[in-house]
Write a structure and sequence with these properties.
β1 and β2 form a beta hairpin. The chain has about 220 residues and is α+β, with helices and mostly antiparallel strands.
Length: about 220
């Protein structure tokens, strides 16, 4: 769940799909990236991937935009499906969602942080989503989410997980939300391995993604 979303530079397992939801906040841009593993009755049809992506983006917006300030917009959803035999199938659509969580914080790098729980663990390997642009009223003491916002975001993350795991359409017979491990022991995995997510934890402390502030200016 990283911010690089323009090109799928690493290949996930067969019938896994990489989804990027991106947009703008203030003068900058943001992206959240996710992975899912799809089960299929046959080769996944373009129309089915298009429908699936639309449902995924709808779920992202309905669950998380209330946890984001009004200065943020979603502008694009993009999916890259890794098909058997080394191919790819892509889908993208314009989006027009806006945050509804009050006045956005002034610092574009500020994020709420969700850690996704799994049955596997290794040091430094926690999959996380850095949810951009919380509203000012969601923050207390300058560096933490309020107790009420933690509770709300925890419920929204759980609802998002449930909704994504329920997605099916046509040749897509089931969906598992999770993450892909590309490396082990300082070496590339071949093939990469998908692990499903089992739950979510919301951190009280705010996170930051400094790249959203732009390049250093001399």
């Amino acid at each position: 769940m990283y911010c690089d979303f323009e090109v799928a530079s690493r290949r996930g397992p067969d019938n896994s799909v990489r989804v990027a939801i991106s947009g703008s906040v203030g003068p900058g841009s943001w992206a959240n990236v996710f992975y899912c593993q799809l089960a299929t009755s046959s080769s996944i049809a373009q129309a089915d991937l298009d429908f699936w992506l639309d449902a995924f983006a709808d779920s992202y917006e309905s669950n998380f935009l209330p946890d984001i300030g009004t200065g943020l917009t979603t502008t694009l959803a993009k999916a890259v499906l890794f098909t058997p035999g080394g191919g790819q199938l892509s889908s993208s659509e314009a989006r027009t969602g806006t945050g509804s969580g009050g006045t956005v914080v002034a610092n574009d790098a500020t994020c709420s942080v969700i850690s996704w729980l799994t049955a596997v663990y290794w040091r430094g390997g926690k999959p996380r989503t850095y949810l951009p642009a919380p509203g000012e009223g969601m923050i207390t003491a300058g560096n933490s989410l309020t107790a009420g916002q933690i509770t709300a975001l925890q419920a929204d993350a759980a609802a998002f997980l449930t909704a994504i795991n329920a997605l099916t359409h046509g040749t897509i017979t089931s969906t598992a939300f999770g993450f892909v491990s590309f490396r082990s022991g300082n070496a590339e995995r071949s093939p990469s391995i998908f692990f499903p997510v089992t739950g979510a934890r919301v951190h009280a402390r705010l996170g930051t993604q400094r790249r959203r502030l732009g390049r250093w200016i001399p």
